[in-house]
UniProtKB/TrEMBL annotation:
<feature type="domain" description="Electron transfer flavoprotein alpha/beta-subunit N-terminal">
    <location>
        <begin position="23"/>
        <end position="213"/>
    </location>
</feature>
<keyword id="KW-0496">Mitochondrion</keyword>
<keyword id="KW-0813">Transport</keyword>
<protein>
    <recommendedName>
        <fullName>Electron transfer flavoprotein subunit beta</fullName>
    </recommendedName>
</protein>
<dbReference type="InterPro" id="IPR014729">
    <property type="entry name" value="Rossmann-like_a/b/a_fold"/>
</dbReference>
<dbReference type="GO" id="GO:0033539">
    <property type="term" value="P:fatty acid beta-oxidation using acyl-CoA dehydrogenase"/>
</dbReference>
<comment type="subunit">
    <text>Heterodimer of an alpha and a beta subunit.</text>
</comment>
<comment type="similarity">
    <text>Belongs to the ETF beta-subunit/FixA family.</text>
</comment>
<dbReference type="InterPro" id="IPR012255">
    <property type="entry name" value="ETF_b"/>
</dbReference>
<dbReference type="GO" id="GO:0009055">
    <property type="term" value="F:electron transfer activity"/>
</dbReference>
<comment type="function">
    <text>The electron transfer flavoprotein serves as a specific electron acceptor for several dehydrogenases, including five acyl-CoA dehydrogenases, glutaryl-CoA and sarcosine dehydrogenase. It transfers the electrons to the main mitochondrial respiratory chain via ETF-ubiquinone oxidoreductase (ETF dehydrogenase).</text>
</comment>
<dbReference type="InterPro" id="IPR000049">
    <property type="entry name" value="ET-Flavoprotein_bsu_CS"/>
</dbReference>
<dbReference type="InterPro" id="IPR033948">
    <property type="entry name" value="ETF_beta_N"/>
</dbReference>
<dbReference type="GO" id="GO:0005759">
    <property type="term" value="C:mitochondrial matrix"/>
</dbReference>
<keyword id="KW-0249">Electron transport</keyword>
<dbReference type="InterPro" id="IPR014730">
    <property type="entry name" value="ETF_a/b_N"/>
</dbReference>
<dbReference type="Pfam" id="PF01012">
    <property type="entry name" value="ETF"/>
</dbReference>
């Protein structure tokens, strides 16, 4: 069984986000970029499934300009067998990504598609659900535990919900999106980083996949959130209670 994992290149989580002066988006020039943390978790889970003997190949997929190759090299260094780069515009919305993933699934025929539950740059949390709908595959979102049964061809997904834990049993092939508690991603070692340079990265275009890239969305303006007021030290519990009673509603 093949496992396909979607990985996204985003502004590194440790970087302070800056909005462009014209408010058209977030500044990405000369900014450290890295793999989306939830995508790292998805790739780690795929690698663990392969290491357990339940999969034969892990394929990393990324979409966007040529800079995505760095993200794919990181995925290969972590242990992915090969990678696919969809050469596409830098701004892709979830439905376009879902359509591209569906087209790649039709070509590669994986038994499992794993994605991070969301990307930290847009927080859309839509792609996994959309591609499951397009493929008509069962889906397990926000997975905190994944167990595969190779003989029965099912995946058991444990997910956190407001009321506690929910367990789903999915017939394969299926789509799974990963939550933070699923695992701790590994670091790429120097030998594996060197080996990754010789691994194959296949390049395709949306046109070759017969997918039209368009969006019904338009970003009107991007602005920074209002700055929070500095905290205030109080000298006593009585003063704290007084402030909570009389000033807590002030933002």
């Amino acid at each position: 069984m093949k496992i396909m994992v979607a990985v996204k290149r985003v502004v590194d989580y440790a970087v302070k986000i800056r909005v462009k002066p014209d408010k058209s988006g977030v500044e990405t020039s000369n900014v450290k970029m890295s793999m989306n943390p939830f995508c790292e978790i998805a790739l780690e889970e795929a690698l663990r499934i392969k290491e357990a003997g339940l999969a034969s190949e892990v394929i990393a997929v990324s979409m966007g300009p040529n800079q995505c190759l760095d993200t794919l090299r990181t995925g290969l260094a972590m242990g992915a067998d090969r990678a696919i780069h969809v050469d596409a515009p830098p701004t892709l919305y979830p439905l376009s990504v879902a359509k591209l993933l569906k087209a790649l699934v039709d070509v590669e025929k994986p038994g499992l598609l794993i994605l991070g539950k969301q990307a930290i740059d847009d927080d859309c949390n839509q792609t996994g659900q959309m591609v499951a709908g397009l493929l008509n595959w069962p889906q397990g979102t926000f997975a905190s535990k994944v167990v595969l049964d190779k003989e029965k061809q099912v995946a058991t997904v444990e997910r956190e919900v407001d009321g506690g834990l929910e367990t789903l049993c999915l017939d394969l092939p299926a789509v799974i999106t990963t939550d933070l508690r699923l695992n701790q991603p590994r670091y790429a070692t120097l030998p594996n980083i060197m080996k990754a340079k010789s691994k194959v990265i296949k390049k395709v275009t949306p046109q070759e996949l017969n997918v039209e890239i368009k969006s019904d969305l338009e970003v009107v303006q991007v602005t920074e959130p209002p700055k929070r007021k500095a905290g205030v030290l109080v000298s006593s519990v009585d003063e704290l209670i007084d402030k909570l009673r009389n000033e807590a509603h002030v933002i």
